Amino acid sequence: MSIFLTKDSKVIVQGMTGSEGTKHTTRMLASGTNIVGGVNPRKAGQSQDFDGKSVPVFGTVADAVKETGADVSVIFVPPKFTKDAVLEAVEAAVPLVVVITEGVPVHDTAAFFAAAQASGTTRIIGPNCPGIITPGESNAGIIPADIAGPGRIGLVSKSGTLTYQMMYELRDFGFSTAIGIGGDPIIGTTHIDALQAFQNDPDTDAIVMIGEIGGDAEERAAAFIKANVTKPVVGYVAGFTAPEGKTMGHAGAIVSGSSGTAAAKQEALEAVGVKVGKTPTETANLMREIMQGLTK
C-alpha cells in the first residue's frame, strides 16, 4: 500500500527528450518506474532509448493517455511553458501530475491549480518539488531511489534536500511513500492532503512532516492533526536560525511578525502532540524511538 503512486502507476514524462527529462527518466526507469511514454510535439511518433528500453514519444498528453492508459505525468519543462504543460495534462484528465519545474510564476501556478481543482480529477504535486517515491514500487520525480527502501513511515516535506536527508537517516526503517510538496507560495498537494492520505493508509504506521518558516501551512496542519490524525507524527521546521523579515530559499518562506516563524510553528505542532526536532537528525531520532516502540 502507498499513497498516490504505486507499482501499477503508468507514468508519462512531459519534456522527456530534454536534458533534464532524459537524465531523470533514465533514473526513474532504473528504479522500476513504469514509464510508458514521453510528450514532445516536435518528436511525435519517434521513440527514445534509455539503456536498452525504448520509450515512445507522443505529440500530446491526450494521445499518450489514449495509447498507454497513463495515469501519472511528470513535468520537466522550462518555467515559461509549465502552465500550458500542466493545463494539457489536466485537460487529458491525468489523475496525478508531478511538476518538478522551479521558478514557475505564481500566477501561472494559481491558474493551473484552479483548473485542476475545477476538473475534480487531477491532483498536482509541486511545482518546485522533488516529486514522490514509493520505494521499491515507483518513483515519479528526482528523489534518489537508493537512499531508503520500503517500510512503514510516511514522509511529507516542503524541502527537497531535507526529504533526501530524512529518508537516509531513517533508511533502517524505510518508507511507505515519501512526497516532496515544494515550497512555493501556491502548491497543489499540501501537508494536510498528505497527512490525510497517510492516516487512511493501513501500511503507514507513523508520519514525518517537514515544514519551513513562512506562511501558516504548518499551523493549519497542526489543527488538522489534532482533529483527524491518530497516528504518531514527528515534525521538523527548517529555519530556526533565519533572521525575521528575510526571504529564505524557497519562494514561500518569508516571515512577518510572529506568524510564520519556526518557533511559532514548533509551538503549534507541539500543542497537538507532535514531537518537533531542532535538527533533522534529532527529528529522525524521535521517529526512530516511536518505530522501535511500535515494534515491541
Any key phrases for this structure?
9 helices, globular, 7-stranded mixed sheet, 296 residues, Rossmann fold, 2 domains, alpha/beta
Overview of this protein structure:
- By secondary structure, the protein is α/β, with parallel strands linked by helices.
- The protein folds into 2 domains: 11-125, NAD(P)-binding Rossmann-like Domain (Rossmann fold, 3-Layer(aba) Sandwich); 147-295, Succinyl-CoA synthetase domains (Rossmann fold, 3-Layer(aba) Sandwich), CATH 3.40.50.261.
- The chain contains 9 helices and 14 strands.
- It has a 7-stranded mixed beta sheet with strand order 3-4-2-1-5-6-7, with helices on both faces. Strands 9-8-11-10-12-13-14 form a 7-stranded mixed beta sheet, sandwiched between helices.
- Strand 6, helix 4 (106-119) and strand 7 form a beta-alpha-beta unit.
- Helix 5 (160-169) packs across helix 9, helix 6 (191-200) runs parallel beside helix 7 and helix 7 (217-228) runs parallel beside helix 8.
- It is globular, with a radius of gyration of 19 Å.
- Keywords: Ligase, Nucleotide-binding, Tricarboxylic acid cycle.
- CoA binds at residues 17-20, 43, 100-102.
